[in-house]
Amino acid sequence: MINQERLWTRLMDLGRIGKQEDGGVTRFSFTEEEREAKKLVSTYMREAGMTVREDAVGNLIGRKEGKQKDAPAVLMGSHIDTVPSGGMFDGALGVIAGIEVVQAMNERNEQHEHPIEVIAFTDEEGSRFGFGMIGSQGIAGTLTDKDLEYRDDKGMRIAEAMKESGLDPTFIADVAKDPATVKAYVELHIEQGRVLENRNLAAGVVTGIAGPLWMKFRITGEAGHAGATPMNMRKDPLMAASEIMCFIEREANNYPNLVATIGQIAVKPGGANVIPSEATFTLDLRDIDVEIRQQAEEKMVRFAQKVCDARGVEIEFELIQRVPPVPCSALVQQTIERSCRKRGIEPFSLPSGAGHDGMQFKDFCPIGMIFVRSQNGISHNPAEWSSKEDCGKGTEILYETIVSLASEA
Ligand SMILES: [Zn+2]
């Protein structure tokens, strides 16, 4: 059906662009490596029989017309930028698989009503400017001139980097697609976790993309001499923090999909023989159900306040960001499930904890995602790996899904 060897060869060839000494791949947006990768991908798109264009933010778009020229298009896509020393599969697989689907459809002379597009989105990861999903925001019409003011670590603004790359940032508004011209968006991506591997499954159907809530807890107490201050006379903010952190973990375990991470912690003044005066830590809280996330957040905040009151320390909560989760469309999920069955794979549903370009299409078009098993759940790492067979299976599911969506009214 699809050509697994061709898919794999292209994936490996793309993975050589930006290869680092440690075996990882580094391809930041608007760099020489990215340009080279886009050139290769546009060659593949042409080989697959698509017309290719690059829009003003650098999205590479391949298009295959359907029988009805003006029908809304079915979009596939992912990104070809990476994190520093990232893997060969994150993003790249979705783009190469989309191209393979179109090429296989052409070879089988598969008839379809709707046009099909494969998009390699600009800068999904946000590694260079600390601001990601530039291309998908452009297409959704939510990218603003202000966003292009973000700078990389050398002080270069996105707008300048775009110009350097031959793009014209004054045209970003033209990149936006009219939602009426889009039927659905489907992305194949590696899972980046271990859920599929633990269940011994090659691929899965994504139910939604969890939105992160980031907040900072700042607890202030009283510094004191570690030797001279009796335990019952302390106002130790770090001990309060540790109680709160344990509660956060326990609470997160009460929900099937909720994940809570404390990734940063700082203690002041930071002496081995000084009771801290201040402890701060961050919380990253995610679920695909915004009400569950909200409920958990409220419980955690209430508990934190209670602990701090009891210990006589002060607490402040600072919201850093509250990104809404994005549920996948029921129509697209059902189409993917049917496609799994057609390929002899029992459909299994799971949420995406990581963010993806499809999030930007929340109010734009129905979205769906297919996950492919990641070996040991490793991602954003040179050791990132998915087998040739699993990539092939995921692509076959994508094939069936796109044929259905592009054929049905
Ligand atoms: Zn990705």
Give a description of the structure.
With 409 residues, this protein is α+β, with helices and mostly antiparallel strands. The protein folds into two domains: 290 residues, Aminopeptidase (3-Layer(aba) Sandwich); 111 residues, Alpha-Beta Plaits (2-Layer Sandwich). Helix 2 packs parallel to helix 3, helix 3 packs across helix 11 and helix 10 crosses helix 11. The protein starts with a helix and ends with a helix. Bound molecules: zinc ion (ZN).
Largest sheet: 9 strands, mixed
For this structure, what is the CATH homologous superfamily of the largest domain? Answer: Zn peptidases
CATH class of the largest domain: Alpha Beta
* Radius of gyration, CA atoms, in whole angstroms: 24 Å
Question: What structural keywords apply?
Answer:
22% strand; 409 residues; Alpha-Beta Plaits; 33% helix; five-stranded antiparallel sheet; binds zinc ion; alpha+beta; 2 domains; Aminopeptidase; nine-stranded mixed sheet
